[in-house]
Inverse folding.
């Protein structure tokens, strides 16, 4: 049974200078225990999708489309019921761990609060918190539990917020850029912790990242975003080995290990999107039709899809 | 054999609480790139800042084309400064937010050659075109530019002075993968065209291998030099999937 189904999601932000189309006609679904990667570059609209699912977008956002989670439609769910889901059934590993931890609260208590809120005694809650610290590799857990967030490195803070997100055994964990700003060593550790969550918790993981290595390593399926749209979706091995959209191909070729081939130009402004394909001006396979006719997401027989008039055969 | 652009011998830096690094020695030849690799906190940036003499090393020599920078007086340093330059990690703080891009890119030439902005812009025009900036960019302020555009502007500022050595401190770690490829390719092209040498700081092994001829791995205050192949071997063993968290 499908756990999450996003159908035709549009998110717009009206501003003084015009409307920002942050997310356009985004549709995908996730099965229980699946890891789906939303990959894309800065401003491609990937974080907005995660925020829309957990309903943490600012009030100014205009949202249309449906988000079904376990049969319930989330965008129209009363606040109180959404509040009950948030952090318990759906959790978020936020993008900025430093800004998400209380600087005046010891690390152990940051996690233990959750259990205390649930009605457990303080000591039992702290013991449970230490178990979670061990689970994400923060050892010795006794010492780390007594310390404050500023005494941890960036990678350790990232693991601490991850441990908070898994405290409630959520069914869906949304990890927003979990490796941003981390060095190679911390990135590897985070990747292992996230892989471990999947094995132990059997939760579904929505991994929002611009880190293609991480996505390749962890994901079952990948959705590639460009200018607010999914331009290609499919099993991770296919997307990485036989990308069909010219943008996905360019992105993979630009990785240092794949030749560092630059993709010239920039993505279009989300306030002034072209009439045809958003990628047309940078695409080497562009035809006349690409400039006038906006391509839809064409589903193919390999349980994937591509938004392109001239997709590569793969 | 010609003299190396940079030769470090026994360079050490300690703060009150102990050594950041000690006994670092290596050379960088003309048109070559040496990488500094290591975890956060391993001292890569401090070593880069010592080479630039933005910080004074505690002991050792920094021979820049034979002249020791380590003990040079500020006035003498000032004279040599144009020949060694640095690119910083965070593009958003690399340029003065109150100056337009035209003012920022013209500034080094205006100061060195004591000329006006128009003359400086005329001199630097080929370089601005070379790094892929257009006239429309020049009127803008740093906050109106993307990270990649700022790094291009920084490159045109630096190369306007014809440097012999550039210390690049994670110049692309805040950029997207496609923009990273644009900036790194541009740096490689500029190296081919001008013969500049780089000290390239990064914590990304793949970027290291794409950019560097040799890589100094910093850990526990010591440095060990690797060829690209040796470096990849070690990265493969240390970060294989079976290693503990």
């Amino acid at each position: 049974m499908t756990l999450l189904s996003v159908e035709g999601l549009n998110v717009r932000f009206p501003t003084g200078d015009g409307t920002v189309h942050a997310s356009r006609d985004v549709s995908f679904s996730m099965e229980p225990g699946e890891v789906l990667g939303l990959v894309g570059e800065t401003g491609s609209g990937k974080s907005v999708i995660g925020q829309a699912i957990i309903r943490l977008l600012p009030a100014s956002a205009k949202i249309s489309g449906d988000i079904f989670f376990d049969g319930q439609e989330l965008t129209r769910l009363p606040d109180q019921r959404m509040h009950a889901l948030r952090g318990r059934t759906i959790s978020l590993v936020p993008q900025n761990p430093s800004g998400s931890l209380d600087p005046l609260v010891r690390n152990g208590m940051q996690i233990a609060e959750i259990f205390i809120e649930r009605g457990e005694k303080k000591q039992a809650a702290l013991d449970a918190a230490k178990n979670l610290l061990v689970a994400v590799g923060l050892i010795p857990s006794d010492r780390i539990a007594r310390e404050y967030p500023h005494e941890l490195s960036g990678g350790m803070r990232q693991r601490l917020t991850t441990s908070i997100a898994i405290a409630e055994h959520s069914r869906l964990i949304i990890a927003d850029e979990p490796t941003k700003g981390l060095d190679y060593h911390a990135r590897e550790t985070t990747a292992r912790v996230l892989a471990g969550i999947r094995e132990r918790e059997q939760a579904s993981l929505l991994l929002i990242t611009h880190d293609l290595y991480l996505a390749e390593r962890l994901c079952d399926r990948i959705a590639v975003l460009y200018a607010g749209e999914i331009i290609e979706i499919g099993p991770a091995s296919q997307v990485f080995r036989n990308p069909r959209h010219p943008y996905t191909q360019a992105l993979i070729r630009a990785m240092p290990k794949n030749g560092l081939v630059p993709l010239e130009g920039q993505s279009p402004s989300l306030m002034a999107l072209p009439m045809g394909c958003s990628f047309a001006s940078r695409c080497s396979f562009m035809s006349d039709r690409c400039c006038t006719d906006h391509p839809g997401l064409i589903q193919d027989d390999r349980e994937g899809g591509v938004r392109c008039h001239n997709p590569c055969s793969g | 054999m010609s003299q190396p652009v940079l030769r470090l011998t026994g360079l050490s830096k300690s703060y009150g609480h102990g050594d950041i690094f000690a006994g670092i020695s290596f050379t960088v030849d003309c048109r070559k790139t040496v990488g500094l690799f290591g975890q956060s906190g391993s001292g890569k940036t401090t070593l880069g800042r010592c080479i630039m003499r933005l910080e004074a090393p505690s002991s050792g020599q920094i021979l820049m084309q034979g002249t020791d920078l380590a003990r040079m007086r500020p006035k003498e340093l000032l004279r040599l400064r144009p020949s060694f330059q640095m690119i910083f990690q965070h593009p958003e703080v690399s340029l003065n937010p109150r100056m337009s891009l035209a003012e920022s890119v013209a500034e080094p030439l205006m100061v060195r050659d004591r000329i006006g902005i128009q003359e400086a812009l005329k001199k630097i025009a080929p370089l601005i075109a070379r790094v892929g900036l257009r006239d429309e960019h020049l009127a803008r302020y740093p906050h109106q530019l993307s990270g990649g555009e700022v790094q291009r502007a920084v490159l045109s500022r630096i190369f306007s002075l014809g440097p012999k050595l550039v210390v690049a401190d994670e110049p692309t770690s805040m950029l997207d993968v496609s923009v990273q490829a644009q900036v790194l390719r541009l740096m490689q092209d500029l190296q081919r065209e001008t013969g500049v040498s780089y000290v390239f700081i990064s914590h990304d092994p793949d970027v290291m291998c794409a950019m560097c001829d040799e890589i100094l791995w910093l850990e526990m205050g010591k440095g060990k030099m690797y060829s690209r192949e040796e470096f990849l071997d070690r990265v493969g063993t240390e970060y294989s999937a079976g290693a503990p968290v």
In short: The first helix of chain A runs from residue 46 to 53. Chain A is about 35% helix and 25% strand. The mean pLDDT of chain A is 92. Chain A touches chain B at residues 41-42, 136-137, 153-155, 182-186, 188-189, 192-193, 196, 210, 212, 250-251, 254-257, 260-264, 266 (CB under 8 Å).
